[in-house]
Amino acid sequence: MTFFKATVTAGAVLLATTAYAKTDLTLAMQLEPPHLDPTSAAAGAIDNVVYSNIFEGLTRFGPDGSVNPGLAESWDISEDGLTYTFHLREGVKFHDGTDFEASDVVFSLDRARAEDSANAQKALFAGISAVEAVDPKTVKITLEAPNGSLLFNLAWGDAVIVAPESIEGIKQNPVGTGAFKFDNWVQGDKIDLTRNEAYWGTPAKLDKATFKFISDPTAGFAAMMAEDIDVFISYPAPENIPQFEADPRFQVILGNTEGETILGTNNKQAPFDNVKVRKALAHAIDRQAIIDGAMFGLGTPIGSHFAPHNPDYVDLTGNSQYDPELAKQLLAEAGFADGFKTTLKLPPPSYARRGGEIIAAQLRAVGIEAEISNLEWAQWLEQVFRGKDYGLTIVSHTEPFDIGIYARPDYYFQYDNADFQALIEDLNVEADPDKRSEMIKKAQNMISEDYVNAYLFQLAIPTIAKAGVQGLWKDAPTQAVDLTAVGWAE
């Protein structure tokens, strides 16, 4: 829901009109990306800056989560579902002036699915057997088996198109085809983008956009109130929202994300390799206390890794209701009547840091001592995501429709269930909507009843903006701060 305050004086309107007659925007985020290559890291902060703004894919997500044409203006699908022929847009150039052609698509997708690929979502491309340039403006993708999710998969930030000519410098100097060009990066402070005057599509309304990185919520509040910044995406201090709602200088936009916030559990590390211990963990958690204490009421309780706004959502919160006595009983049955010690490694977002303190207290009440380590994002990626050196963690998975990650035994929570893997394989090749729906619901039940992780809440996304800013996405169907339609009221 979006709240607009209309009680503005005539003088304020005059001042606002003068102030808003501009074509630059300064937007704040809490997390700074580790680098700017969305095809070789899991950090959502990368996509926040570059998705659609700098880099584009063959398809792209719209603000409502729909999959739309991107660099491919259309496509044909063979009757057997094994061949997709993409027709690329004419007149598209990369920011360095080189032409966008079918060979760039081949390079990008072959790089993403290569054996030595660093792509964080390599599984998106696993069913592709060949990518061929039919001619400079036509690409043919051949699949090993039909995949009803291919167009969806190609819309992810991990599937954007890059060029071999600029790939060496992509992490610090990204060169894409988007409506904005990378201009400057002051590490620890900001990233500047400028409008791409040669953009193939509708040109950006803004001449310049600056992403500022403000990790401290108190500093973010001060900067917003002082009007040093124009927008704060995913505002990290929800306790301040009523104050912004009451101030006619600002608008508060409350939206939904694809972010399943979980107490991530290392399923291969003892004692979490015991399902009774994982179940005890789930029943030791009071979700609502976490939502109220860490998010000031913003968030929807979940019982599986699935977004409540999805039509195939199943409410499975009943599988893990708050019951500390049951948690103690399960621990005793698992041989841990006296509890145990583990690690709780937390990335920077406030939902993790604040939620971690609350969860540690809840676990302590049933005999589990969780030693908290506050990590910077790069440390979290190294230790937890890649190194799997952790017991517990808290993170929000903001990728769209990503329940398939539970079919990857080498994923950081290391869940290895052959039946679940087979279910996802069948889902990937099933085209019938009713059958797909049944499979999706079954998948939710399987991981909920296996207590792979403790499922906490669906992450809300509060955006604070000056009253004259228009065109911001309300919801976050993917990890993106798409500025291509953002501008100021005239």
Describe the overall structure:
The protein has 13 helices and 20 strands. Mean pLDDT is 93; it is low at 1-20. It is globular. With 490 residues, the protein is an alpha+beta fold. It has helices at 10-20, 44-50, 102-113, 150-153, 217-225, 241-245, 275-283, 287-295, 324-333, 350-364, 377-386, 418-429, 433-449, and strands at residues 2-3, 24-29, 59-61, 67-69, 72-77, 83-88, 128-135, 138-143, 180-186, 190-195, 208-213, 231-232, 250-265, 300-301, 340-346, 368-374, 392-397, 454-466, 469-470, 487-488. The longest helix is centred in the last third of the chain and has 17 residues, at 433-449.
**Helix residue percentage:** 25-40%
Largest β-sheet summary: 12 strands, mixed
* Secondary structure tally: strands: 20
**What amount of the residues lies in strands?**
15-25%
Q: What is the tally of helical segments?
A: 13
The span between the termini is 24 Å
Spans of 5+ residues with little confidence (pLDDT < 50)? Answer: 1-20
Structural class: alpha+beta
Mean pLDDT rating: 93
Task: Give the radius of gyration.
Answer: 23 Å
User: What's the overall geometry?
Assistant: globular
